[in-house]
Design brief:
The protein is about 0% helix and about 40% strand. It has strands at about 5-10, 15, 40, 45-50, 70-80, 85-95, 115-120, 125-130, 130, 140-145, 150-155, 165-170, 190, 195-200, 210-220, 240-245, 250-255, 270-275, 280-290, 295-305. A hairpin with a 5-residue loop joins strand 7 and strand 8 (about 125-130). By secondary structure, it is mostly beta strands.
Length: about 325
Amino acid sequence: MMTLPKALLVLGLLSLGAARAAQAHEGSHAQPGARPTTPVAPSPAPSAAHGGAHGKGHMEHKPEPGGQPGFRAELETTPSTIKAGQPATLTLSVKDATGTLVRELPRVHEKPMHLLAISRDLAEFAHLHPEPQPDGTYQVRHTFPSGGAYKLYVDYTPRGAPQVVNQIELTVEGPSRPVARLQEDATATKTVEGVRVTMHTDRPLRAGADALLRFSVADAKTGKPVTDLQPYLGALAHFVILSEDTQHFLHAHPLEAQPSAPGGPSPSEVSAHTSFPRPGLYKVWTQVQRGGRVITVPFVVHVAQATAPAPAHTGHGT
């Protein structure tokens, strides 16, 4: 029996639609003296669904009417051509269904916007936080390490509306690296930057079936469970899960996991009830903070085909 408290995560599936984004970009937000910016049209917008505000949650697909949410994020880049290894400014504008700029977004986990920049082969990952600007846009500087295709997942919650995640495809010029082939992990334990994180499941992962994911965190040197995890953006962990084809994305946060008193001992395990919509490979990035440093630990899991329902019994007893 486990004696350590568990943090239950609410996971919201963000299943990316296939409809084309038809809105054109408006305006330019380049600062005086900056190189010209290039608007990047958003890819098909995803719909979003959530678990409850407290307690257990799981991924589920609830498309919005028409397959498009009422909000969209648009991207401009400075310089106009982003090059690998060189810093670039990403400027995001959120528009409502009428095309009006949404100037203020509520803070969710201490930030009004979360931006996940992930390479198409899922080998590169960055969790960014664009900051509000006087003109109502959101801006962040980032250096992409390699040339190639990336997807940006723009996560925000307009006031009075459910969470929205828009995806934007982006090409970075410059030297590329060999494409990394996604493979299921041979071990469920990873050691990164002084912590050893082990992922457990309560049952084999199958498409459409509920599963409990548990992540235990130990000190890499002593092997003892850690009790000094620190809140990072209002949570003891952040999880991002993405399917190999990049079509199924979720950004999850633990609930009721922080120490009851500031500086008190933290749980050494966080857990989540969830389900995966389709079979295949998924990459899971687990982020925790310890000693003032954010540590990202990646896992790759395989989700099997759904179990076929047992045939109905139609015979007669003897």
